[in-house]
Amino acid sequence: MERSDVIILGGGLIGLTLAIALDRHGLSSIVIDPADPAKIAAPAFDGRATAIASASWRMLEAIGVARLLEGEGCPIRSIRVSEGLAPGGIVFEVPADDDPLGIMVENRRLRAVLRDAAQAAKRVTLLMPARAADIVRDAAGVRVALDDGRVATAPLLVGAEGRNSPTREAAQIPVARWKYDHAAIVVTVDHALHHENAAYEIFYPTGPFAILPMLPGTRSAIVWSLPAADAAAVIDLPDRAMAAEIEKRMGGFLGAVTLAGPRWTYPLGFHHAATMTAERLVLAGDAAHGIHPIAGQGLNLGMRDAATLAQVLVEGARRGLDLGDAQLLARYERWRSLDTFMVAAATDGLTRLYGVPGGAASAVRRFGMGLVQRIAPLKDRFMAEARGESGDLPLLLRGLPI
To answer: How far apart are the first and last CA of the chain?
Structure first.
């Protein structure tokens, strides 16, 4: 029987980040995941790259992970938002001496670095691949029996298995969910001109089209949202035809485009758990909330969950509390519930707002973007949201130890 302070179901980006953060502050964890590490490390597993907000990056620095990505992340110095290729829109920029708005990192590399750090951590036990066959949560604690006969115990269980979390379903936590009749096409492209560390969010009637800067300066990640039926046709285009379609939507401002790797497609949907806690259980990351990628906040919401939960548990342990104590879990729920709801509602609202067709709706959107561009306090608020720096930040997101 293996015992730890916390059992984490899910060895993805959020589960591993939490395990490392806890280890750095003296708490132990057992991470259980059915995935084969060799398969998820393969280049073909996941083509996504993520804009890690500056606050999330500070947490990775604080727990010793960011240095392992030295020279691999591309800083985002500006974000340009526009209605199609029409002039105007909003430009968010940071001075040269300020932290970037975010850092673009390939999910594959971030996952590999987190796994290496977790394997090196003294207080993290990785059980991968392994599957939980039976879970008991009661007043005495948490007991997880694996399908190979091993047993793990802890005062607290963390469900971080992603949007189809079996732990959330088993706990009968209600979830609001719906599908957007859209899919995202994700592909990396090379282009003739330097991107100048700028990210672009271009809103077309068919859906948002994001250009995210990567290293070297003539490479970008494309996240192209299309109606599901159109995406199914576009994903099968020959390379040259696909590159031509992407170049057209970029307006040619980065020059000639060629594909730099395979393309993937992901269905888009929304889900939000009614509560993030139950008896000796907390949810984190996509197990608790899943949003449209329109603002690139999905992973960063999960990072904020991990930073908050780490602080709640570390401070609780210092006070000698049972880590599954209902008061501790209630603190996590209070701290995270408003932020996750507000971001989820905002991204869903943006998705619907920019999905309204017609010239009148387009004119209203351009007018709104013009207001944001001209009103400094409003623009600053949006920029703080993009950087993950709004609200009551946990210490790790400020780059400070707990």
So the answer is: 30
What letter would DSSP give residue 185?
Answer: E
Total number of domains in the chain = 1
pLDDT digits (tens, 9 = 90+) for 303-312: 999 999 999 9
Q: Is residue 376 part of a domain?
A: no
Q: In what order do the strands lie in the sheet with 289-290?
A: 90-93, 78-83, 198-204, 207-214, 219-227, 175-191, 257-273, 289-290
Burial class (CB within 10 angstroms; exposed 0-12, middle 13-18, buried 19+) of 139:
exposed
Per-residue pLDDT of 60-70, as tens digits, reads: 999 999 999 99
Q: What is the domain-level CATH number for residue 350? A: 3.50.50.60
Which one, of 114, 121, 119, 130, lies nearest residue 65 by Cα?
A: 114
Q: What is the rounded CA–CA span in Å between residue 241 and residue 148?
A: 49
What pTM value is reported for the model?
A: 0.91
194 within 8 A of 218, measured Cβ to Cβ: yes
Three-state secondary structure call for residue 9 = strand
* Phi (first) and psi of residue 104, to 5 degrees: -85, 125
State both tokens at 73.
């992340």
d(CA 13, CA 17): 6
